[in-house]
Specification:
- This protein is of the alpha+beta class.
- It has two domains: about 220 residues, Vanillyl-alcohol Oxidase, Chain A, domain 3 (3-Layer(aba) Sandwich); about 25 residues, no CATH class.
- The chain is built from seven helices and seven strands; from the N terminus they run E-H-E-E-H-E-H-E-H-E-E-H-H-H.
- A seven-stranded antiparallel sheet has the order 4-1-3-2-6-7-5.
- Strand 2 and strand 3 form a beta hairpin.
- Helix 1 packs across helix 2, helix 1 packs across helix 4 and helix 4 packs antiparallel against helix 5.
């Protein structure tokens, strides 16, 4: 079967609209038709002279007209038109390139004020959510997100809808147990790899506090792709009740412990 064509979209607002957007998005995106994948990404650039943004970004298997109709539901709910809108119906390979090249925050990693690319240190935390965040928590995390910006520190909050086909499998059907969630929130911060210890510590402190502000509303489940070395119970956070079954399978097929992970290592 040939790969399908996709409708790709990128709608941008100033960060000042993020609270209204998020309040609508967290009920709209997880309940959208399976054909639509619409993430909400908030970005604070490493250069304090560049404004922070809120971006609805993703793709749909639907036509351009059908996709625009779905997106309009969010725009109307948020109460303000985006400052920039791009919706394009593309062949699959062109769509993949579009999604790579136009991802929010896709400035050169560690870009300095003069525009030169610099390697970065990237830190992240994540958590799944089964219930919507109340407005006061949304306001709190956004205040922290934009507060006390630091040169060379790029921040991101990535809200990814779950729902749909993800939730139509039982949690024990595969190794992945997070089948009852509505959305995933990734907190991330990038800094230059030559940043001082003090700046590295400041970036980690921002990250930890961002996660703490909404953790009471989370499910306790984390996404394994966003490795978090500070987690004290990797097995439960990543694999839940499926961990013991994974350990038994590993013992049978990897008796020499070639593939190692602290999250399900039979010796861990």
């Amino acid at each position: 079967m040939p790969a399908p064509d996709l409708t790709c979209f990128r709608l941008v607002w100033p960060l000042a609209k993020a609270a209204d957007l998020l309040e609508v998005w967290q009920s709209w995106a997880p309940s959208a038709p399976d054909e639509l994948a619409a993430s909400l990404l908030l970005n604070v650039p490493a250069n304090p002279e560049r404004p922070p943004t809120a971006t609805l970004f993703g793709s749909s298997l639907g036509t351009k007209d059908a996709t625009e109709h779905l997106l309009e539901e969010l725009v109307v709910g948020a109460g303000e038109d985006p400052t920039s809108t791009t919706v394009e119906y593309l062949q699959y390979m062109r769509a993949k390139r579009y999604l790579w090249e136009h991802a929010p925050g896709a400035e050169p990693h560690g870009e300095g004020l003069a525009g030169e690319p610099r390697p970065v240190l990237a830190f992240a935390k994540s958590e799944f959510f089964r219930r919507e965040l109340p407005r006061e928590r949304i306001d709190a995390i956004l205040d922290h997100f934009e507060g006390r910006r630091a040169l060379g520190q790029a921040r991101e909050l990535d809200f990814t809808p779950w729902g749909g086909a993800y939730t139509r499998l039982d949690p024990e059907a595969t190794a992945f147990p997070h089948r009852r969630e509505r959305f995933l929130l990734k907190h991330a911060v990038n800094i230059h790899n030559d940043a001082s210890t003090e700046r590295q510590d400041a970036a980690r402190e921002w990250l930890t506090r961002s996660w703490e502000l909404v953790h009471p509303w989370g499910s306790g489940g984390m996404f394994p792709n966003f490795a978090d070395p500070e987690l004290t119970d990797l097995a439960t956070a990543y694999y839940g009740a499926n961990r013991n079954r994974l350990v038994r399978i590993k013992a049978e097929y990897d008796a020499d412990n070639l593939f190692r992970s602290p999250a399900y290592n039979r010796r861990g």
